[in-house]
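Quick one: co-fold with thymidine-5'-phosphate.
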Amino acid sequence: MFITFEGIEGSGKTTQIERVSACFDENGYDTVVTREPGDTLIGKKIRAILLDPDNRGMSDLCELFLYGADRAQHLFEVVVPSLNAGKTVLCDRFTDATTVYQGAARGIARELIDTIHSVVVKDLRPDLTILFDLDPAIGLERAFSALEDGERSVDEARFEQEALGFHQQVRQGYLALAGAEKERFLVVDASGTPEQVFGEIVSGINNRLGIDLRGKGTSAS
Ligand code: TMP
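Sure, here it is.
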C-alpha cells in the first residue's frame, strides 16, 4: 500500500504520519515512513539546497528539477524496494506537491510537470492521498512558531518566507487536484484537534482501502 500525505506548511501532517504509522504497526503491518524531499543520503543534500533561505535566487526550473532528482533517488532507494517487499509506505509529500507548488503556485506548465512525472514516477500512483486542508493564515502561524521554538531549523525556511498569497495558491491547487481525483484523495479538516484529525484519517483509510485499522485513539479501539 502506498499512501501519501499532502498539505500546506503547518497543516500538521508530519505529526499525524507518526501516529498513523504507529497504528499500522499495532495492526501488524510492516510500515515505512518516508518523505520528500530528503529521505536518502543524496536527497538530504538536495533538500538542504532546496530549503535554504539563502537560495532565494533559485530559478523555478532549477527548483522543479531538484525535486525531480530527489524523487528519482527516493523511488529507486526507498519507495519501490519497500513496495516490492510488501511493505506499507507512508510518504510525507509526493508528486502532488510538485504539481501544486511548482505548477499552481510558481506557474510552471502542467504539461512539463506531467512529462517529468511520467519519466521519474512512470505509472506508480498512490493508493490514497490524504490532503490536510487548512487556512494558510493558520498554517503559517503554526509554521512560524515551529521555527521560533526550534522545532524546525531556520535553515529550512525558504518556503515559509513566501507571501500568504503563494500559500493560498498552494491550498487552492491542492483542492483542485482533490476535486478532480475524488477517488484517490481523502480531504481532512486540519483545523480540528490532533485527536479529531487522527480519527478522521483512520476511518478514511479504513473506508477507502477496505481495511480495519484498530488501535489507540481510533474510534474502533
Ligand atoms: P517539508 O518537508 O517540511 O514539508 O518541506 C518541504 C517543502 O518543499 C515544502 O515547503 C513544500 C516543498 N515542496 C515542493 O515545493 N515541491 C515538491 O515536490 C515537494 C515534495 C515539496
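If it helps, The two ends are 22 Å apart (CA to CA).
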